[in-house]
Design brief:
Helices cover 25% and strands 24% of the residues. By secondary structure, it is α+β, with helices and mostly antiparallel strands. The chain has three domains: 81 residues, OB fold (Dihydrolipoamide Acetyltransferase, E2P) (Beta Barrel), CATH 2.40.50; 114 residues, E3-binding domain (Dihydrolipoamide Transferase), CATH 4.10.320.10; 203 residues, Chloramphenicol Acetyltransferase, CATH 3.30.559.10. Helix 5 crosses helix 6 and helix 5 packs across helix 7. The strands form four sheets. Strands 9, 12, 13, 14, 15, 16, 17 and 18 form an eight-stranded mixed β-sheet that branches. Strands 1-8-6-3 form a four-stranded antiparallel β-sheet, with no helix packed on it. It is globular and about 80 Å long.
Length: 428
């Protein structure tokens, strides 16, 4: 029998094979993981639907596959799916439609269709944001060809469709209302005309990161606030309790202190822990505190979420922080591990960075960027100059929700929470 890629989630219908865990000749059991599949930013284990001897592997690492793709062929199959081996294969292509065939346009106009307005065809997969942009532009997604994995429609597809539609209308001599929203040209240049180059394909993860960053940066009015926090208090507490934490198997870095201080400030500034529902046009104030931790990995930036940070002790935060960071670096985080964040921290301190302007992780309303703590001269209240460990802070915020005054007050309160960190919150 053939073992096929099952549907893994509500929106997970395709992905890229990152590893194959079995080989021909192996005997496997039903439910055993046979491949690992990268879907957006997560890597998911894919189990076999039946047991038996592996006769042939039908996919290879790097393949982009969709629901119904044959993964491998088994001999002597057993399990719930074995009786379905003769069932027709599930096709990854879009369902057939009875709508009239599109009118083909010459040359580069082939993606534009002119068809009967009363007929509607199938709509390819697309994110809620892409669907909203299409609605704002007055476009029907059933007429847009998706270029993403599994036929997913992305912003670039909308831009191409609008551009080609405008040219088609011009050729036909008709007039159309200029579309509202963002349309931008795509780069498609032969850079080798100017000197030697090398090219490498973008990974599935890098494509997702690219799309998300463009969406986040273009659709959110970013403003960034800068400040410094004196880390003397936290460094003193960290040195005092370091041995006690290590005795419990936990390394005590400054980051858990900063998370604890941040959550206390978020409670006093709820708009920084909120999201805009763009369809309902409401501001959703969240009464839970799930902190996204941006982790730099070889494959790209991943943001696992540390949940209910307000309910955890410093020890629990430090322990869980180490776990989520390791899972991210090993690409073991699931899609669920990266959902539901209310506020994100991007920490470049370990690399040695200073100030930077982080991009907000939509639908959140703000993000905190941390640089490397360095000794710098500080004028004290008495007028003397002392060397103090200063932490560079940058806070990017959504100006639709947060005004400059609110951002300044949030930053001042955060600096104070860091510089006056309570000892009882660090003690075991």
């Amino acid at each position: 029998m053939d073992v096929r890629l099952p549907k893994i989630g509500d929106s997970a219908d395709s992905g890229t094979v990152v590893s194959i865990l079995v080989k021909p000749g192996d005997t496997i059991t039903a439910g055993q993981t046979v491949i690992e599949l990268e879907q957006e930013k997560a890597v998911a284990p894919i189990p076999s639907s039946a047991g038996g001897k592996v006769l042939e592997i039908k996919v290879k690492e790097g393949d982009k596959i969709s629901v119904g793709t044959v993964l491998l062929t088994l001999e002597g199959a057993s399990g719930a799916a074995a009786s379905a081996s003769s069932a027709p294969a599930v096709k990854a292509s879009a369902p057939r439609s009875s709508r009239p065939a599109p009118v083909e346009l010459p040359d580069d106009e082939e993606d534009v269709v002119v068809e009967d307005e009363s007929e509607e065809g199938p709509v390819g997969p697309a994110s809620p944001y892409v669907r909203k942009v299409a609605r704002d532009l007055g476009l029907k997604l059933s007429r847009v060809r998706g270029s993403g994995a599994g036929g997913r429609i992305v912003l670039d597809d909308l831009a191409r469709y609008v551009s080609r539609l405008e040219r088609a209308v011009a050729r036909a001599g008709r007039h159309a209302e200029e579309p509202k929203g963002l349309v931008y040209p795509l780069v498609n240049q032969d850079f080798s005309l100017f000197g030697p180059v090398t090219s490498e394909p973008l990974s599935a993860l890098r494509k997702v990161i690219s799309q998300r960053m463009v969406e986040n940066k273009v659709t959110l009015p970013h403003v960034t606030q800068f400040d410094d926090a004196d880390m003397s208090r936290i460094e003193e507490l960290r040195k005092r309790f370091k041995a006690a934490y290590e005795a419990k198997g936990v390394k005590l870095s400054p980051t858990p202190f900063l998370i604890k201080a941040l959550v206390s400030v978020l409670k006093r500034h709820p708009k920084f822990n909120a999201s805009i529902n763009e369809v309902a046009e409401t501001l959703v104030l969240k009464h839970y505190y799930h902190i996204g931790i941006a982790v730099d990995t070889e494959a790209g930036l991943l943001v696992p979420v540390l949940r209910d940070a307000d309910k955890k002790s410093l020890l629990e935060i430090a322990r869980e922080l180490a776990v989520v960071a390791e899972k991210a670096r090993d690409r073991k985080v699931s899609a669920d591990d990266m959902k539901g964040g209310t506020f994100t921290i991007s920490n470049q301190g370990a690399i040695g960075g200073s100030y930077f302007t982080p991009v907000i992780n939509k639908p959140e309303t703000a993000i905190l960027g941390l640089g490397k703590t360095r000794l710098k001269p500080v004028v004290t209240a008495t007028g003397s100059i002392e060397a103090r460990p200063l932490l560079p802070l940058t806070i990017s915020y959504d100006h639709r929700v947060i005004d400059g005054g609110g951002a300044a007050r949030f930053t001042i309160d955060l600096v104070k929470a860091i510089e006056e960190f309570p000892e009882q919150d660090a003690a075991l």
